[in-house]
Structure formats: C-alpha cells, structure tokens
Design goal:
Blueprint: H1 2-30, H2 43-57, E1 60-66, H3 71-82, H4 84-93, E2 94-100, H5 108-121, E3 132-136, E4 142-147, E5 152-153, E6 156-157, H6 159-168, H7 171-175
Length: 176
C-alpha cells in the first residue's frame, strides 16, 4: 500500500508539472516586443514636431512607419532599443519616431484619409512594406526610403546592415 501511495503522489506531481509547462509557455508567448506606436496621435503632426526638434539639434528624422499590428515593426523597435551601437548612432544623429499607419478599412473614412495623407507626405513609402524607414532632412523633406526587408536576417535584423544604412544617412554624410 505504501508503494501505491508513492506512485499516486508521484503521478500528482507529474500532473502538476505537466500543467505548469503549458502555462509557462502561454505566458511567454503573450510577452513579446513592447508596442511602440501611439495610435491616438496625428502622424503628420508627429512628423512635423520631430522635424522641429531635429532641426534645432542639427539632426535628421527617421520615421519608422508601421504599427503595433506588425510583428516586424515591433522587432525592429526592440532591436534598436537593445543594440547599443545602433541606438547610439540613432541618438547622436536622428530624431527617431514610430509613425503609426493603419491600412485597414475598419478605421473609417477619416482614418483612411489620414493614412493616404501620411503616405503622400512620405512619398508613398508603404510601397516597400512595413516597417519602412523614412529619413527626413532638417527641412522635413524625404531624402531616403529604406526597405527594412533588406536589413533582415533570419527572424531579426542584421546589425552590420542596419549600421551601414544609418551611417550612410547621417547629416554629416549627406551634407559633405
């Protein structure tokens, strides 16, 4: 009987462990990259304000256009936040903003028009997919549109490619 009791206790522990594993997997699946796009602000106004800040600091603007709906957009933002060399180049040379773009019809006529206006403002940058990185000079003119797919590697981004892109469009490189 004592032997049977140990088996039952062991089975109970095993059952608890089996339950704990899927719950921990579920919890980790729900925690992904931080959502960085503010869906409640006007993206054109956001860009205009970033241009003013950048101009006063002798920087350019990088608009990371996409949305919280886009896994690759969130991955890029997470990559920038975690890679110190990349974040340093951005911090020293750019005003970096996450510009929300929602291509879905569910947002209504006003939202669709706002999205069209945004794409006109950024020279139809969405043609490259999302995220798309748009570099604006100190006057707010589009000087480069970067297809982020060319910066990818595996399930993330290639540090060397991202740094090459960023360094190629810093104010000092463009103005010299």
């Amino acid at each position: 009987m004592a032997y049977a009791g140990r088996i039952v206790r062991g089975m109970k522990r095993g059952f608890v462990v089996l339950l704990a594993v899927p719950l921990s997997l579920l919890a980790s699946a729900q925690t992904g990259p931080k959502k960085v796009y503010d869906e409640d602000i006007n993206p054109i106004e956001q860009i205009d304000q970033a241009v003013v800040r950048a101009k006063s600091e002798g920087k350019f603007v990088i608009c990371q256009v996409g949305g919280n709906w886009c896994p690759w957009c969130l991955r890029f933002a997470d990559f920038v936040a975690k890679d110190t060399a990349v974040s340093r180049v951005i911090g020293e040379n750019y005003e970096y903003i996450h510009v929300n773009y929602n291509p879905r019809r569910s947002q209504g006529a006003e939202g669709l028009e706002q999205g069209r206006a945004l794409m006109r403002r950024l020279d139809n940058a969405g043609r490259f997919g999302f995220p798309v990185l748009v570099v604006l000079d100190e006057e707010g003119r589009v000087i480069h549109i970067q297809d982020s797919g060319l910066l990818e590697e595996g399930e993330g981004y290639n540090r060397k490619k991202v740094l090459s892109f960023l360094k190629g469009w810093v104010p000092g490189a463009v103005k010299n």
